[in-house]
Amino acid sequence: MRVEIVEIIRQVLRDVSSAGLEEPRIEESDWDDDPRMLSAMIYSTRDSTGQGVSVKADLPQAEQLVSVADQVQEWVIEENGPTNSNWPCCPWHPNNHPLAAQLIDDQGFWACPVLNTPVALIGELSVKD
Ligand SMILES: [Zn+2]
Q: How far is the CA of 91 from the centre of ligand 1 (A)?
């Protein structure tokens, strides 16, 4: 079960690396005692600050992806500080807010939270255009 969340995290990390940002180290970890939750830790390679990532095991895959993307985004923003605090950058409002992970038509998208317009599938930000 734990391998599954690692796969989901890796999918989100494709967007992290394509943005030129440093990817975290993923560690399988059953830190969440709830057997209905899948959990893992992501660590900065610069220091040992870790953040837990968890998702309900029985959610549809697209919903898991949106939830994990949201948590990874939190880590990236925390990790990179104010300079990269708007990852992933909204193409319409690059100075105002990052894109938000949203479920649209049963698929996980990065979307502008103001226009509610999808930009790219999660994991495929670099593939757009
Ligand atoms: Zn926007």
A: 7
The C-alpha atoms of residue 25 and residue 44 are separated, in whole angstroms, by: 6
| Alpha carbons 98 and 62: distance in angstroms, whole number | 20
Q: Residue 49: give the domain boundaries.
A: 2-127
Q: Which of 88, 79, 68, 87 is nearest to 11 (CA)?
A: 68
Instruction: Compute, in angstroms, the gap from residue 85 CA to the centroid of ligand 1.
Output: 14
Which pTM was predicted?
0.91
Tens-level pLDDT at each residue, the chain (129 residues) = 445 899 999 999 999 999 999 899 999 888 988 989 999 999 998 777 789 999 999 999 999 999 999 999 999 998 887 666 789 999 999 999 999 999 999 999 999 999 999 999 999 998 654
Q: What is the 118 CA–ligand 1 centroid distance (Å)?
A: 10
Q: Which helix or strand (DSSP H or E) is residue 74 part of?
A: helix 61-80
